[in-house]
Amino acid sequence: MAEPDRVPGEHNVFAWGEDPGAREQVTALPGELGPPTGRVLDLGGNRAARAVEMWLLPPRVGLFRSFGHGEFNREVRRSR
């Protein structure tokens, strides 16, 4: 998140939590570090966390094993 140019392409950062004010702060933070704030997806409350963890973690572990490093990310694209 602090060095988005290390991996080329568009990236997403996910935010969730029960405090809407805290989510707003987290959503603004990446814009200060590098990636545009529009790349942060606010997923709402904590119930979203479990689903996102299961969607992100297992493939990340497999990709890390295949690549031998963690220099990768993924992008979420919305259908129009």
How does this model look, in words?
- This protein has 80 residues and is mainly alpha-helical.
- The chain has helices spanning 20-33, 47-67; strands at residues 13-15, 40-42.
- The chain has a two-stranded parallel sheet with strand order 1-2.
- The longest helix has 21 residues, at 47-67.
- It starts with 12 loop residues before the first strand and ends in a 13-residue tail after the last helix.
Shape from CA axes? Answer: globular
Proportion of strand residues: 5-15%
Number of DSSP helices?
Answer: 2
**Mean pLDDT score:** 82
Q: Indicate the percent of residues in helices.
A: 40-55%
Strand order of the largest sheet: 1-2
Low-confidence regions:
none
Radius of gyration: 13 Å
Summary keywords:
80 residues, mainly alpha, two-stranded parallel ribbon, 2 helices, 2 strands, globular
Task: Give the helix/strand layout.
Layout: E1 13-15, H1 20-33, E2 40-42, H2 47-67
Parallel strand pairs: 1-2
Concise description?
This protein is 44% helix and 8% strand. The chain is built from two helices and two strands.
